[in-house]
Amino acid sequence: MSRAFAALADPTRRDIVARLSDGDATLTEIAEHYDVSIQAVSKHLTVLESAGLISRTRRAQARPAHLEAEVFDLMNGWIERYRRRAEQRYQRLDAVLADMNAEENPTDSTEQGAAS
Fold first, then answer.
1. Tell me: the pLDDT tens digits for 49-62?
2. What confidence score (pLDDT) does residue 63 get?
3. How far, CA to CA in Å, does 35 sit from each of 7, 12, 28, 44, 56?
4. Which fold has domain 1-67?
5. 60 dihedral zone (left: phi>0; alpha: psi -120 to 50; beta)
6. Where are the domains of the chain?
7. Is-above-0.90 flag for pTM?
8. b or e along 67-93 (b: 16 or more beta carbons within 10 Å of the residue's beta carbon)?
9. What is the mean pLDDT of the chain?
10. Nearest one of 47, 51, 64 to 12, comparing CA atoms
């Protein structure tokens, strides 16, 4: 997974992934969108392929790149797990801060309770 995140650290590779989310494309088709050499785009594809984010198959003379969605599902699961943990910590912090605020301003909480 580290290789996948490292591969996505580059904005050009993220853009290539975004383009491939619309469908498979050959090196030439991908390179049309960038002001860099075909060799540079090929290196980007090699990095993405080494990270397992794309695969390339041979279809006649062409080697279209294909986005490997399963890898993104794994990455998303990993991110979601840590997002939930962070959310729980923030909820606990909110509760602590609310308690501290209630202790410092006891009249505010009684006034709010009376207004309800």
1. 999 999 998 776 77
2. 86
3. 20, 11, 12, 13, 22
4. Arc Repressor Mutant, subunit A (1.10.10)
5. left
6. 1-67, 69-103
7. no
8. bbeebeeeeeeeeeeeeeeeeeeeeee
9. 89
10. 47
> In which residue are the tokens 């050959």 written?
26
Give dist(CA 49, CA 33) in Å, integer.
19
Model confidence at 97, in pLDDT bands (50, 70, 90)? very high
3-state secondary structure the chain: CHHHHHHCCCHHHHHHHHHHCCCCECHHHHHCCCCCCHHHHHHHHHHHHHCCCEEECCECCECCEEECHHHHHHHHHHHHHHHHHHHHHHHHHHHHHHHHHHHHCHHHHHHHHHHC
